[in-house]
User: Which sequence fits this backbone?
């Protein structure tokens, strides 16, 4: 069942659209549920679809089309490093290697304690602060150095 | 997945180019203490143009003419004249017309709209409200790139402020003009920057571009007439009405009115956003950005994001930063996303990363784009894996030419441009890689 908080937030999103366009809120509804539960299971996706009164497949298509939805578990902290051109030019590779070594995982893997997951990202529209990474789709860390990465990991633990 | 509590790291702030003789238009609030606040914007004359148009019932045609005089061209990349676009919206329509702002910037190297929202959200809101008044739109959406969550929150906060102050909402300034504006958050799909994919996404669907025609002006959000502009385009509007279209045009050069935000990234000492007058020589802009980092030499620049052709140092060094200047020099202005590469950059590996991006982000609707982008990526990967053949270069050119012009949306052309221009200008590097199985530049 969707939590009271989630429903409240989804209802707010629904106010942005005409009453007969409930599907329009599916992107934000999925985001809200994912943020609360960590990832989107088939069941979560169906609950969102049911709440909006749209077919399951309509919600599933959205959840699988957009990169930031996670239809598999991602651990407590999902770290996404941008490796696109502007970040690559400022050595995002060294950040990736450092993270992989420190955490002992590759891309799309989760640490044994379930704390961290590493993802390769596309341009985040923040290339002036390259190299950079985002945590749980919400917190952007820019102008990274390996030392700064260590600090951030420590703060997250 | 708990939301992390750490503070964001040091952010790269836009540079105060007014101190270097430039006119700040879309980032004019930077000169003030709390740039993003409503009070700051009001102090600079904010929302007065909206109020004037609405209370004096200024005719739409007058506003459109002023925008035409300004020479403003769409800042989202295609450079379509904004005044002309506005004149396409049907005047009379029985029902709600929509206004959409495209803040989905996901073209690698583009990060200007993020700074507009961070530092001057109210000017964007006023620009949209003015457009809504002019075009008779009752509802607007600002679609914000998924990865910039904090900016989405900032914009929601600014909307609440504007609503409370009576700048958006019902019966504005006691008239019968109403305009509701909402923030919408993307969730990671470059293709949603394409305006019809973005409209699909607002409707809660996969971001797959629509066939055009019909264009959004006749069939947009929820099938209703819709005007789509980029964030920087809307944000220029209040300034144009406050100081006059001619004043805006005069900032720039023929064919390119106004100032422009250039996102400078890559191998420069001071990456960031630079708002400068159109027509500035590239060399001057590079100098503002601190020059090439580590005392190295310039090798190449992608002047407007990867969908614009890469330019070797010789070509860009003599160019000016405006629509005509860059097209004369063999590329285009795009969204003003300057990606700077120094002499240590391997062009083969760089192209591989760009090709992967287009392959990943193709929405898959058109066969030439879906298959072609994957094919291109695999061939370049084969080269960097040391298994390339000389024929591969012609193959890459052929495949790219076959994507170009044969697709529903411009992502297909965008994907072909880097391949064609990288091979054209840096062919010896590709040949070396094929012959030696390693990079001519870094030997790896
Ligand atoms: C693949 C692709 C990506 C695009 N991305 C963006 C974008 O991130 N932001 C943007 O404003 N326009 C983008 N555009 C252009 C839009 O389709 C549209 O032309 C623009 O938003 C119109 O606004 P303007 O006339 O003010 O530039 C993109 C186009 C394509 C084909
Ligand atoms: S060109 Fe590519 S991205 Fe555009 S509609 Fe066709 S398949 Fe999708
Ligand atoms: S290329 Fe990394 S944020 Fe744009």
Assistant:
């Amino acid at each position: 069942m969707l939590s009271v908080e989630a429903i409240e937030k989804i209802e707010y999103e629904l106010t942005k659209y005409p009453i007969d366009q409930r599907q329009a809120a599916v992107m934000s509804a999925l985001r809200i549920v994912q943020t609360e539960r960590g990832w989107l299971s088939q069941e979560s996706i169906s609950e969102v679809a049911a709440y909006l009164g749209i077919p399951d497949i309509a919600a599933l298509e959205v959840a699988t089309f957009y990169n930031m939805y996670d239809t598999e578990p991602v651990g407590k902290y999902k770290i996404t490093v941008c490796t696109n051109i502007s970040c690559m030019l400022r050595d995002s590779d060294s950040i990736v290697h450092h993270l992989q070594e420190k955490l002992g995982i590759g891309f799309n893997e989760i640490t044994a304690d379930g704390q961290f997951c590493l993802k390769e990202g596309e341009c985040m529209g923040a290339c002036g602060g390259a190299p950079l990474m985002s945590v749980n789709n919400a917190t952007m860390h820019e102008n990274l150095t390996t030392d700064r990465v260590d600090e951030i990991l420590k703060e997250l633990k | 997945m708990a939301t992390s509590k750490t503070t964001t790291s040091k952010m790269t702030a836009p540079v105060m180019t007014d101190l270097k003789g430039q006119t700040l238009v879309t980032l004019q609030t930077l000169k003030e203490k709390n740039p993003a606040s409503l009070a700051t914007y009001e102090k600079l004359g904010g929302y007065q143009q909206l109020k004037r148009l609405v209370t004096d019932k200024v005719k739409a045609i007058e506003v459109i003419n002023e925008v035409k005089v300004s020479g403003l061209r769409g800042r989202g990349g295609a450079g379509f004249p904004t005044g002309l676009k506005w004149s396409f919206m049907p005047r009379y329509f029985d029902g709600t017309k929509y206004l959409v702002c495209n803040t989905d910037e996901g073209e690698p190297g583009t990060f200007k709209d993020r700074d507009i929202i961070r530092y001057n959200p109210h000017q964007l809101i006023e620009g949209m409200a003015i457009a809504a008044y002019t075009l008779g739109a009752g509802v607007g959406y600002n679609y914000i790139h998924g990865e910039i969550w904090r900016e989405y929150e900032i914009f929601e906060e600014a909307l609440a402020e504007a609503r409370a102050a009576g700048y958006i909402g019902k019966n504005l300034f006691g008239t019968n003009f109403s305009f509701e504006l909402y923030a919408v958050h993307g969730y990671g799909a470059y293709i949603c920057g394409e305006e019809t994919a973005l409209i699909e996404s607002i409707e809660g669907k996969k971001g797959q571009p629509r066939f055009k025609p019909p264009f959004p002006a006749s069939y947009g959000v929820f099938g209703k007439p819709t005007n789509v502009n980029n964030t920087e385009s809307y944000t220029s509007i209040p300034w144009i009405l406050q100081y006059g279209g001619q004043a805006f045009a005069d900032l720039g050069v023929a064919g390119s009115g106004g100032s422009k935000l250039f996102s400078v990234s890559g191998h420069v000492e001071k990456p960031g956003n630079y708002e400068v007058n159109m027509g500035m020589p590239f060399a001057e802009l590079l100098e503002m950005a601190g020059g090439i980092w580590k005392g190295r030499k310039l090798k190449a620049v992608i002047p407007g994001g990867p969908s614009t052709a890469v330019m070797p140092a010789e070509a860009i060094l003599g160019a000016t930063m405006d629509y005509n200047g860059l097209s004369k020099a063999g590329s285009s202005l795009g969204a003003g996303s300057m990606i700077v590469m120094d002499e240590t950059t391997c062009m083969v590996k760089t192209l591989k990363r760009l090709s992967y991006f287009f392959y990943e982000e193709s929405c898959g609707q058109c066969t030439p784009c879906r298959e072609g982008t994957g094919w291109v990526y695999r061939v370049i990967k084969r080269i960097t894996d040391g298994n390339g053949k000389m024929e591969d270069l012609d193959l890459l050119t052929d495949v790219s030419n076959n994507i170009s012009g044969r697709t529903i949306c411009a992502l297909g052309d965008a994907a072909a441009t880097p391949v064609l221009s990288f091979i054209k200008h840096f062919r010896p590097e590709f040949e070396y890689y094929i012959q030696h199985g390693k990079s001519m530049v870094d030997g790896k």
